[in-house]
Structure formats: C-alpha cells, structure tokens
Amino acid sequence: MSDPLSVASALIAIVTATLQSSKVLYETIRSFRNHRTAVSDLVRELKGLELVLGPLEEHVRADETAFLPLKFPLIQCREACVGFQELVERSSMRTRGEARTSIRDWARLTFMNGDIVSFKELVAGYKSTINIALADANL
Q1: Under a CB-based contact definition with an 8 Å cutoff, are residues 137 and 52 in contact?
Q2: Are 21 and 81 in contact (CB under 8 A)?
Q3: Which of 38, 63, 73, 102 has the fewest CB atoms in 10 Å of its CB?
Q4: 3-state SS, residue 139
Q5: pLDDT band for position 98 (cuts 50, 70, 90)
Q6: By percentage, how much of the chain surpasses pLDDT 90?
Q7: Where are the chain's structural domains?
Q8: Calpha distance 39→34 (Å, rounded)
C-alpha cells in the first residue's frame, strides 16, 4: 500500500501542474481575440477553471488527503489542457510573440470549431467536479 503522505504530497503537484497547464492554455486561446463565439466561450470556461483550481490548490495545501478522490480527474484535466494546447500550437502558424492571427490561423480555427466546443464541454465537466469537491469541503 502507498504511503498516504507521499500520495497526498503528489496530489499538490498534480493540482499545481493542472493549474499551470490551464493558465497556459487560457493565455494561448485568449490570444485569438475577436474570434468566433466558441473561442470566447472556451476562454471564459478556462478562466473559470483557473478560478476553481486556485482555491483547490489552497485547500490541498491545508488538507491534501481530503481531495485524493480528485487525483485522477485532475490528471485527466491536465492532460486534456496540454493536449489541446499542442493541437492549437500545431494548428497555428503564428510566430511566437506576434500579436495578430493570420488568415490561415482563422481558417484552421474555424475548422477546429467542433474540437473547441467539445473541449469547452470537457473543461466545464472538470470544473464542475472540482467545484462540487470544494463545496463539500467547505460544508
């Protein structure tokens, strides 16, 4: 059986990594300003995820064992954020640091619209799971 302390300390690393990956993805997606509604909705959902992961990180630092059931959803959330970040980067031909999105980026982003909507729903599910755990912890 695993040492509860090592399992719990691993959880804080998972929460922190998930928070960081969602922030990086949020900034990348936000850079596609003034794009379709799906992108705007995804930006809002990612910001919401960041807003629930922050308090979760604080709670996990205070009592790691209470949030162990979130370990696998957090790992999946982080992997989804990293994977979608890579998809966006592969689909974008922009040079790093460029403020504007090219016409090619617009076309690729439009093509990805279904992926964006599906990913937004996935993020919403993770956010809801975390919110429920936080609400339960605050009771």
Answers
A1: no
A2: yes
A3: 63
A4: coil
A5: low
A6: 27
A7: 4-137
A8: 9
